[in-house]
Here is the input.
Amino acid sequence: MEKSGGRMVMDEIRSFEKAHLFDLGHPLLNRIADSFVKAAGVGALQAVSREAYFTVVDGAGFDSNNVGPPSESKKHRFPNLRGESSKSLDALVKNTGKESLQWGLAAGLYSGITYGMKEVRGGAHDWKNSAVAGALTGAAMAMTTSDRTSHEQVVQSALTGAAISTAANLLSSVF
Here is the structure.
């Protein structure tokens, strides 16, 4: 491939990273929708990859319960996945969709809050916006992932979301 052809491909890839997938008429809506779709895709890949990993481990005959303390890996697997049947495939699709939705909602919420904070604060985008957006997103996700979420779990998720978001913001200038 020529240098000019290779350069054109790289320019296309870079422009895709900067461009939004949607034009909904307002930058806030564009950002939320773009974040939702990209994160939902990542969530789906993560969910399917996790199930593929456990399928390979189970198929190879590895039993993590015999080595060290009992593993909680089975708890995180998709329920109702047994063998190769249409019921198993339906469960995989349903659970992958649910996890994709959770990832997308988290990303859309976080992105919308950071954009709103930036607008309210006169264009300032700093660790404070990230901390608030991470805390609100963490709390919201804690409240939506379980039927019996305690206030301690909500607070812990909010603190974790704020810490991860703030660290990512502060480290973004390092790399």
